[in-house]
């Protein structure tokens, strides 16, 4: 139960995280916004793993405590890689098949400074 439940929970967490980021990427164009959505989704889907560990270990305190301590790390990893998952990164080119690049990222244009008459 513990192995199968954790695997199933991991697959479900990945699907929810990737699906949520795919939907959010249609609306949000900024990388920081996708990072925030990734962190929120990572924090919200982790209880599925906690439940799988609770059922698999019959509520063993040490295993539940370790799983609970992994929660912030799971959230941080989901946040850090959310732009990769959503396809908005230009940092990790190895993720892309040859000939395909990442989706364009919105860049705020900075107006050029005006110079007075010389």
Q: What is the H-and-E element order?
A: HHHHH
If you average the pLDDT, what whole number results?
78
The Rg value, from CA coordinates, equals 20 Å
Low-confidence stretches: none
Oligomer: single chain
* C-alpha termini separation: 78 Å
Beta percentage is under 5%
Q: Share of helix among residues?
A: 55-70%
Q: What would you call the structural class? A: mainly alpha
Shape descriptor: elongated
β-strand number: 0
Sheet with most strands: none
Contiguous helical run count: 5
Topology:
Blueprint: H1 2-27, H2 31-45, H3 47-56, H4 61-80, H5 82-86
How would you explain this protein's 3D organization?
The structure is a single chain. By secondary structure, the protein is an all-alpha fold. 64% of the residues lie in helices and 0% in strands. The protein contains five helices and no strands. The protein has helices at residues 2-27, 31-45, 47-56, 61-80, 82-86. It is elongated, with a radius of gyration of 20 Å. The chain starts with a helix and ends in a 32-residue tail after the last helix.
